[in-house]
Amino acid sequence: MNIKYFIQNQILLPRLKKSGVLAVYDPDHLYHELCLEMATEKIRVIDTSESSIESREEALKTLRSLGSDRGLEGMLVYVPANAPLSNEEKQVDPFSLYSACGNVFPDGAGDEYMHICLKAKPDHSTEIRRIFKENPLPNFAVIDALGDGSGWPNLKVILGVESASDILFALLAPSDRQKASLKENETWVSEARELFETCIGLKLITRGKTWLSIGEELWRFLLYSEFVFDLPESLPDSLSNVPRAPEEAKHLVEDLCDRLRNDRRTQSVYIDRAEAIERDLDLPAHCRSIKDLGVRDTFPFEERSFLAQSIDALRLDETDRVRSILERHKHSVWIGKGESQAQWGLIRSALALCEACDDYARQLPDHSGTLDDMIDFYIVRFREVDRLQREFEQSIADLIDAHTIMDNVVEKTRNNYRKIAAKVHDLFIRHLETNGWPPLGRLANADVFDTWIAPKLQESGRKVAYLLIDALRYELGVALEKQLSEDDSVELNPAFAQLPTITSVGMASLLPEAGKTLTLAKDENKILPMLGTLKLAGVNQRMDVLRNKYGQRFAEMTLVNFIRSKKKLPETVELLVLRSVEIDSQLETAPEAALRLIHDTLKRIRVAIHKLKEIGFQDVIIATDHGFFLNTHAEVGDVCAKPAGNWMIVHDRFALGDGTADTANFVLSAEHLGIRGDFGQASGPRGLVPYRAGELYFHGGASLQECVVPVLSIKLEERQTEPQKPKFNLSYKNEAKRIMTRLPVIDVELVSKKQIELFPQQVDFELLLEAHDKKGNVVGEAKAGDPVNPATGTITMKPGERIQVTLKMLLEFEGKFTVKAMNPKNFALYCKLDLETDYVV
Question: For a tag site, which of 312, 405, 675, 812 has the least CB within 10 Å?
Answer without folding.
Answer: 812
